[in-house]
Specification:
By secondary structure, this protein is α/β, with parallel strands linked by helices. The protein has 22 helices and eight strands.
């Protein structure tokens, strides 16, 4: 019984905006306007709301002898529009009760449409039936606006929906249908509903009233968490001091700011924007992929850009970098060599060429490219790192240490550089420094068994047997399996008599 009780409590609260007392057994005494929620309009006003043109009682369907109608609000101005306008449909998801005032006559649903119309868009309110028939009417009203857009002066490709409180459930049921062509964006105020899967193509503004009833906000929080977990294009706004129906009850700056943001949200997504004074850079798409490390997309975007701009050295460097990350070495080298031919002063191109040649083990070519890079960019950490790797590979240990120390000084977050520096210190018979460098790498990969083993070897060589054994224990725990290697490794000679060493070896089987 508990879920049923909870559902009744929630529904009873959600119906607050529908004011069920108005259409049911009417009381003998008429409520005074100041005590009637539905007599109040939106607390934000803009110029021109009093000059909005309203076409009333447009029939959109007839069912069982009942004509359901809508009111259409147009911006101030002549009746003949040059271009169709975007529209916002205010969803009637609770229905109109027989004998009660229609939702489209309430203050909230006559003032909000005026606000929208005065802001340059068309607004639509409509009748609907309560109960099970409501979902059908919501669908048909939206479909009518979409189908009759030209007749109504509405651009059918730019329709938004607005729903609050109890109306939200019906609105979400309709607009979240996969492939729903009618609604391009939506606004949800202090309400929630069941969504199987939020549409990835529908921007939604969800406004939460912080001082709403806890049950209501729990539902809203679950809905917003679901949308954000799906990475749906939802904007969630919390108003800490707002009450349910804040847009008509809370005459505060917080409310007015939220309403203005709502109008802007709808306008940004529905109203055509004037063309910019100059077109946006063709490189923006490629740049976005590049800086987020989306290398396949970056390669495609920069290849397309280079086709149109073959003399752009920077674009060629970015293309080459993406190709390096994708391990397309030959293509990368070709792109980067084109860049250096166009601009020999592009240090980034020489860095990437040096990296390629280091990986190819062509250390002469690598050092030549990296020396040029450092001459152009003396504080480039990647150039010093790659040069240090090349020098270490050629057993130029002091030079490698100098280059790698400079690399980690410039970029302490480069774990690969710390790792290479540790090997350089071992080659220089400086195990204490090697152990310290390996520890810097462990910060990035604390459970890597090979790294744990190498760090143990450095500590063993440095004479710290206790630390070496501790790290060997951790290496085996994390999956190190080379028993023969551990028994024969000369770096561990100093710890083989340690009491724990035999136990660790035994765990290797």
């Amino acid at each position: 019984m508990r879920p049923i009780i909870a559902a009744r409590l929630s529904l009873g609260f959600l119906m607050m905006c529908a004011n069920p007392a108005r259409g049911q057994a009417a009381t003998a005494q008429q409520a005074r306007p100041e005590h009637d929620l539905n007599s109040y309009g939106v607390v934000e006003t803009v110029a021109g709301m009093d000059r909005v043109r309203v076409v009333r009682d447009v029939a959109y369907k007839t069912v069982a002898g009942q004509v359901l109608q809508m009111d259409v609000y147009y911006p101030p101005g002549p009746e003949t529009q040059v271009q169709p306008l975007p529209a916002v449909v205010f969803v009637n998801g609770v229905g109109d009760r027989p004998g009660g005032a229609k939702l489209r006559t309430w203050g909230q649903y006559t003032s909000w449409p005026r606000l929208i119309a005065a802001s340059g868009m068309v607004a639509v309110t409509f009748d609907s039936r309560p109960g099970d028939e409501n979902a059908e009417d919501v669908h048909d009203a939206l479909a009518y606006v979409h189908a009759k857009g030209t007749t109504l002066g509405i651009d059918a490709s730019r329709i938004g929906a607005w729903a609050c409180s109890a109306n939200v459930r019906a609105a979400l049921t309709r607009i979240m249908q996969p492939g729903e062509p009618v609604v391009r964006t939506a606004v949800i105020y202090y309400g929630a509903g069941d969504v199987t899967e939020p549409r990835a193509d529908l921007p939604v503004l969800l406004v939460r009233a912080g001082r709403d009833r806890p049950q209501q906000n729990e539902q809203i929080d679950r809905l917003s968490a679901q949308a954000l977990a799906a990475n749906a294009p939802w904007t969630v706004v919390n108003l800490p001091n707002a009450h349910h129906a804040f847009d008509v009850l809370d005459d505060t700056d917080e409310s007015r700011i939220a309403i203005r943001k709502t109008v802007a949200f709808l306008g940004d997504r529905l109203q055509p924007q004037p063309p910019p004074s100059r077109p946006p850079s063709e490189a923006l798409e490629a740049l976005a992929h590049f800086f987020t490390g989306e290398w396949p997309e970056a390669e495609v975007a920069y290849a397309r850009y280079v086709d149109r701009h073959p003399d752009d050295a920077i674009a060629l460097v970015r293309l080459g970098t993406a190709q390096v990350e994708l391990k397309k070495t030959d293509e990368a080298a070709a792109s980067l060599k084109k860049a250096t031919a166009l601009d020999p002063g592009n240090g980034d191109a020489w860095v990437m060429l040096g990296r390629i040649e280091t990986d190819r083990k062509d250390y002469v070519a690598a050092r030549d490219a990296l020396t040029k890079a450092i001459g152009l960019m003396p504080d480039n950490p990647e150039a010093h790192f790659q040069l240090g790797k090349a020098q270490l590979a050629q057993q130029e240990v002091p030079a490698a240490i100098a280059s790698l120390e400079r690399a980690v000084q410039l970029n302490p977050g480069n774990g690969w550089a710390w790792n290479s520096l540790a090997y350089a210190y071992l080659a220089a018979r400086e195990p204490v420094k090697a152990a310290g460098s390996f520890e810097r790498v462990l910060a990035f990969a604390p459970k890597n068994p090979g790294l744990l083993y190498n760090t143990a070897c450095a500590y063993a060589l440095a004479g710290d047997s206790a630390k070496a054994v501790e790290l060997l224990d951790r290496a085996v725990t994390e999956g190190y399996k080379d028993k023969a290697g551990m028994m024969a490794d000369p770096d561990l000679a100093a710890v083989r008599n340690h009491p724990r060493f035999a136990e660790i070896v035994k765990r290797l089987g």
